Give the backbone structure.
Amino acid sequence: MEAKAEERTPQLDDWELAGRAQAGDMDAFAALVRRYQGPVTHFCQRMTGSLEDAEDLAQEAFVRLHRHLHRLEPRARFSTVLFGIARNLTLNHVRNMNRRGRGRNEPLDERPLRDETRPAPDAAARVGEIEAALAEGIAQLSPDHREVLLLREVEGMDYDEIAAVLKCRKGTVKSRLARAREQLRQRLVDLGGEEL
Amino acid sequence: MKKGHVLDELSAYIDGEARDPERIERHLRQCPACARRHLELLRLSSHLGALREPEVSPAFLTRVMAHAREAEPLPARRAWWAAAPRWGMAIALIVAGLGLLYGNLPGGGTLPGGRTAPGPETPGAVAGLPEASADYLDDEAVVEALAALMDQGADLSYVAADTPRSWLMEDSTVTYDDVVALLAEEVEAEDGSFVTVMPDNVYGAIDSLEDTEAEAFESLLTDYMGKG
């Protein structure tokens, strides 16, 4: 069934798949899930700091997308609709966690922190260190800055698409992104004691 | 920051969104400090783009599909939200305008078609806000107000990103609830039910209206109220 979705829907774009899913084709919907499960889960993981929470949120985002299918029309880029749902769910989750005192300022659970006992890093270790520092730096950003940075730098959305996801103005995207980058850049410079 | 530096513009510049990229390029050729920052931002962007996606559980797709099959599609009309938003006054104006249009809403007025609006004891009432229910409001005034506002140049697309204006204009069955639904989001209550509320980002979207747009919005609502 779903395992054959990719075979039955090989070259269809997102809205073509969504159209079929609107008509009740669950294989088409499964193809959409396969296409976006990685990026959506990644976004949720970077927002929440927990892969387990991220999978739950991504799952809920897809289920809600399915419930909303009949309301959608192919105007915006499909991913902005899906990420808009995921973003709202994630923000609610982050707020709930903050209210319960479980902040989001810890590094991602599966990412190693810098090991200060290590010898001078070779290239691979240096990449790992940068990735760990990035994860930690992203975690320290406010949710407003974190989400705009992830949508731009990780998901590759342009400013108009990000504005559609965040339901804000393009100018807001521009200013938040500039502040997020500067905070992260400064943090990495501080951590590394050198330029990037 | 020294006069003439472009540090604040580099983020938009690397995204191709700078207002005057030629000026920035000229400056970067002459200013080591800005050139160094530019390089750092490019490297940062490269590092971020290389972050690895997590490995999604093999059972993820199965779980999603099982839940999707179980979940009923949203009805065309949904129960009205029951939260008191920061922009409650604006929403109250909308509802009050509809109430004037249709008689004595809220509070037991008679609606077109002989339908009766529920009284103040109706569940879901919010202190300080008039009630509304998609069950009896079959009105296009708010839709027209939003459309007219867009005619005046207001960009409301960001509060209705997944619903084209044509849908707003042409669908005669659109209700106030549908408009609210554009602005609202569902959140899960502790008992597992879903409640439609106005989220912070929608407040931000409405709050971000330019003064002239906000005035036009209020003017339209006042106008509709006056017609009632």
Summary: Chain A is about 70% helix and 0% strand. Residues 112 and 164 of chain A are 34 Å apart (CA to CA). Chain A touches chain B through 68 residues (CB under 8 Å). The longest helix of chain A spans residues 26-48.
